[in-house]
């Protein structure tokens, strides 16, 4: 994995952790999850900024947000027992397909 994509993976992982912690912060009324949320978002945005030095903004953001949506939905399903219906699963499948198309077929990701 190249360095920009490693930073992108870190950005996605930290964003998913931050969003999960935000759910646990109960509207920023619990101190520890609130602090953890802010710290993880800071790390995520730093890592994303390092990615943007090489990967075009639109491509990096599409991958970051698309993979983040799918991962946080899985966390919601597994950790928070939230349900996912067929349209949600189909939509996430389309998001995954879009990320694959960008990475496999787009020349914009070349660096």
Automatic annotation (TrEMBL):
> What parts of the sequence cross the membrane?
28-48, 60-80, 86-105
Q: What are the recorded GO MF terms, alphabetically? A: amino-acid betaine transmembrane transporter activity; antiporter activity; choline transmembrane transporter activity
Query: Signal peptide span per the entry?
Result: none
Query: Pfam families given for it?
Result: Multi_Drug_Res (PF00893)
* Alphabetized UniProt keyword annotations: Cell membrane, Membrane, Transmembrane, Transmembrane helix, Transport
| InterPro entries recorded | EmrE-like, Small_drug/metabolite_transptr, Small_multidrug_res
Write down what this protein is called: Multidrug transporter
Q: Which organism is it from?
A: Acidovorax temperans
């Amino acid at each position: 994995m190249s360095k920009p994509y490693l930073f992108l993976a870190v950005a996605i992982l930290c964003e998913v952790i931050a969003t999960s912690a935000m759910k646990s912060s109960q509207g920023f009324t619990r101190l520890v999850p609130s602090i953890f949320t802010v710290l993880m978002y800071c790390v995520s945005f730093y890592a994303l900024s390092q990615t943007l030095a090489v990967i075009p903004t639109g491509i990096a953001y599409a991958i970051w947000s698309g993979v983040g949506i799918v991962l946080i939905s899985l966390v919601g399903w597994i950790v928070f027992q939230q349900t996912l219906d067929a349209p949600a699963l189909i939509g996430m499948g389309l998001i995954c397909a879009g990320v694959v198309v960008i990475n496999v077929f787009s020349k914009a990701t070349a660096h």
